[in-house]
Each structure stands twice: as C-alpha cells, then as structure tokens.
Amino acid sequence: MNGELTEKLADLLGQVNGFIYPNEIEIHWGILIVVYPYVTGVVAGAFILASLVKVFNVEEVSPTYRLALLTALAFLLVAPLPLNLHLGHPERAYEIFLTPNLTSAMAMFGFVYAWYLMGVLLLEIWFEYRRDLIVWSRQARFPLSWVYRVLSLFSSDISPRALEFDHAAAKMITIIGIPSAFLLHGYVGFIFGSVKANPWWSSVLMPIVFLMSAIVSGIALVIFLYMVITPIRGEIIDMRCLDKLASFLFYAVIVDFSLEVLDFIHRLYESEESVKILGTLINQKLFMSLLIVQVLLGMIIPSAMLVAGKSRKMNPELRKLLCFTACILIQVGIFSTRWNVVIGGQLFSKSLRGLTTYKMEVIGAEGLIAALILLALPLIILTVLLKLIPPWREAS
Q1: Could you report the per-residue pLDDT of 212-258, keeping only the tens digit for each?
Q2: What does DSSP assign to residue 236?
Q3: CA distance 310 to 317
Q4: Quick check: 327 and 224 in contact, CB under 8 A?
Q5: Which residues lie closer than 8 Å to 110 by C-beta, 6 or more apart?
C-alpha cells in the first residue's frame, strides 16, 4: 500500500514545475466540469436565439425558431449529468430539494434548473406545439396518436381564439425566459468568479464572459444544425436566414472577445502578486489551448470567415462553406474556453510558486469516453425530438 502511494506521489511530482505543497497537487475538477458549463451555455445561447423571433420579431431567423427550442431542451436534459457523475452519488441529487441550502450557489443550481426546464422551456415548447400535437394525434396511427394526445395534455381546442392565446402565452414565457437563461448560465460564471482565493477565476467580469460565450456557442450550434439538417431533408438553405444568423454570431463573437481582452487588461493593470504565475501559466501550460485554439482558431479566424462570408459578390456555396467552418471552429474555441477556465485555474499552486499538469483519464466515470458520451447524448436526444415533434413541418 505504501509502495503504491509513493509511486503515485512520485508520478504527480513529476508533473510539477516550480514549488508546490503536497496538498496542492491533485486537480479535483476534471473534464466533466469542463463539459458542464459548455452544455449549459448551449442551452442559454439557443434560447436567446429563439427569443429573437418571439420577442424581437426578427422574422429572417424564423426557420430556426423551433430548432433552437428543441436544441435548448435536448442540451438542458443532459446539463445536470456531468455534475451527478462528478459527485459519484447521483442517487442523492434529490436531497438538494429536500434540504435546500440558500447560501450555496451550487446547491441552488437544482432550483434554477427545475425552474428553467419546467417553468420556462417546456411550457414555451408546449404552447408552440399544442395545435400541431392535436392535429398529429388525429392523423397518426396508434400508438403514436396516443403519444401526441398525452403530449397535448388531451386538449382539443384549436379555435382562432385558443391559438391566439397560445401565441401570447409563448411570447410572455419567452420574455420571462430571457433573464432565466441569463441566470442559468450566468450563475456558472458567478461560481468561478466568486472564488476570491483563485486569481485565475476571481473576476467581476467572469459571469458576463461566461454568458456572452454561451450566446456565441448556442447561436453557432443552431447554425451548424440548420446547415446540416436542411440539405439532408432535401430543402434549400434560406440565405436571408443564414446571413442574419451569421451577423448575430459575428456581433456576439466580437463582444465576447472584447470582454475577454478587457478582463486580461484589467488583470495586467492591477498587477497583483499573481500576475507572474498567471503569465507563466499562459506561456507554458495554456499556450496552445488559450492563445492558439481559443483566441486564434476559435475567435479571430472565424470572425474573418464571417466577415468574408457577408460579401454578396461571393459564390453562395462558398459563403455557406465559410459560415459552416466558422461555426465548427467557434464550438472548438468555446469548449477550449471552458477548458482554460476550469482546468487552467487548478494548474498553479496556492503559494503562486509552481505549476502542475492535468492528466485526463480515458476510461472511467470522469474520463474522456464519459465526456464524449455526454457531448453526444444531447444530439441523440435532439434526433429523437426532431422525429417526434419535427420543427419544420406545419400540421395541416
């Protein structure tokens, strides 16, 4: 037993640069905690995109309205799973509702999640789809007809007055859902930003940066899905919709990048004692993931692609290719952002004198395979939702 402990300690010490106390070696938050803010960010971003149609009347992006709602739902259903797997006892998750701790930001996630899922997203989807569910329940064969009847809560009124109420209710819920979406993901940044003992996390801009990057990831993913699904269905991509989405995505990327630069300049201006170790952290441990992947590949190059793709003189197919590639690079960049925040904030010692290395497992409850499954699961759920309640088919 002592031999195994000594071997493990020697392996950990081999990853250390500089001086680190023994109790500072282990990294507690791994890849699953990287996946968690990424998934919740997609939820918030997709819902904000859907609100452009319902609240702000941006008709150009209406082809993606229902797709954005279903995307938000699919990712929201998976959102708590990374935390549950990380805790090791998912069967105890219900206890946060039985013994609420109002002073714990993490414990309050359960209430924020439940409110957003049942009080906002499911209600808006239900009002949006209620008429279609009623019609499908009459047209479909058993047992699917009964599935639609249950989903419609056995309602049958599709009169103009009832449909008008559905529209008004969905709009009101969307208005309520916008600050709720901000709260859902902004609180994740709040958790990191409130850790005063960690200079990499402790920043008043952290919640805002998290929120803006969430909007970027949500919009980019919906564009990606729209550009993949539409040709598969044999339909033509609406260039007016794509151009408008690309414009919103570009503006969101610029704001997100500006906030991150502002945060970096603010840290340099303060010149606290942590500046030296943070500079070493960026130059040594996070050079590739931060400067190359996050900034260059995830922000600068996609922004240039989106600007180039706005040229009306360019071939439409080339414009689509640029937008499609930009969305993929942005997803990689946003995931790298989450990695740099979660993992990067644990790579330096509390004494600010040394750096360690994160070694990710491949197999295990918190390994690479588990993370890939969690990233693929929302897409699987979305596929089922698209089959069950397709966003592109208007019931007749």
Answers
A1: 999 999 999 999 999 999 999 989 999 999 999 999 999 999 999 99
A2: P
A3: 12
A4: yes
A5: 80, 93, 96, 97
